[in-house]
Predict the structure of LON peptidase substrate-binding domain-containing protein.
Amino acid sequence: MAKYLPLFPLSVVVYPGEKLNLHIFEPRYKQLVLDCIENEKTFGIPTFIQNSVGLYGTEIEILQVEKTHANGEMDIRTKGISVFKIDRFDKMAPGRLYAGGEVETFETDYQDDIVTKLKIKDLLQKLYSSLGLDKLFTDLLEDFKSFDIAHHLGLNTEQEYTLLQMQTEVERQEAILQHLQQVVPIIEATEQLKDLVKQNGHFKNLTPPNF
């Protein structure tokens, strides 16, 4: 669906369903937030990546203004709604201080593949166990979708941004599985190396080979 959104570029990737707390201090973004509240409208956070505003981002709804400071700065609670692609970017929306743009929003596909999901769950358990993050594993994996775990996979910003652009859950699952299949053996090998280093200098009870 095409629409015009106020835009708030940031050097982060925000996913649909994700909650994000923001401190608003620049005059242009204070204006953006006040406009959205007054008109009960959403805004967009396109990812600022490689020194430019990326074409993809997430439509954001304001849940609550947590605090308004004496100087007009605000602390707000927000939530991601849907992914969009920018068709036209305006550095300044008409008559406003902030950016804006014509965007096309996408319905988020959450139809997953159960076999791939189980493989991801198994690898995540191994990853978090190796890192001593078992509680994080328990908290995340009651019933998860790709966007729920995306910030907890050790992806860099470019990889997270690539994941945002994938329009089906199955495609996102495959990308996550491939990443974990590469990363988990490295982490496990690193933990084994730590154990070996700790053993140096200790008395060892070794059985010599028969020859």
Observations:
- The chain has two domains: 2-106, 114-199.
- The domain at 2-106 is CATH 2.30.130.40 (Archaeosine Trna-guanine Transglycosylase; Chain: A, domain 4).
